[in-house]
Predict the structure.
Amino acid sequence: MMPPNASSVIILTLSACSSQDCATSPKEVRELAGSAQAQQSRKAAEGHLRSIVNAYAKSTPLTLGLVTVNDLCAGGTSTQWFFQTGDDQYKIRCAMRVTAYYGADSRRIVDVLDGILTAGDHNSSGGVPGDTIPFHHGSHGSPLLDYYRNQIPNLSGQNTPEPALLFDPSQTLSWDTVRSSQTKLIDEPDRCPTNDPPVTRCLQRH
């Protein structure tokens, strides 16, 4: 059982465009991505995401196995006249995604999930989910435990996939199925492409 915790965050937006043509050249993207401001923001974002990864390893029954970091900067596009997405309103935008793979005993799925939800309970304040471990005993967590305890049927209905996922706008927690006749395993991480810092960066560490 290897549940990954994935977090993504837009970490930097620089220099809203004021000219008629906002397209950022590859050279300018590289210069902005390597600037002190960009590097400082990206370092801070990675530190925050890694603190979340470590919180799961420290406060839940999960054992950390592998961490992948994908960091990408892209330039803005030229003026959009018809289909406006906002990509013409910035010079550069950087995004980071961290995925952590953990190990756990699939035979103890109830204890594992209960431990994660309990850690989320402690991380919350006044009923508001915390930003480190946002999953907790509540409208989603408790029914999920009841399902794995065989106390209630799958709330999604008969003949529907096993609910092996918890979702929050900032995180997704998923795991290998343990009750389905058609086992669905977490995909192994793709091998990192060739790094091209400071524009793109990919790391995989045990």
In short: The helical segments are 26-33, 36-59, 109-123, 141-148. Residues 164 and 175 are 6 Å apart (CA to CA).
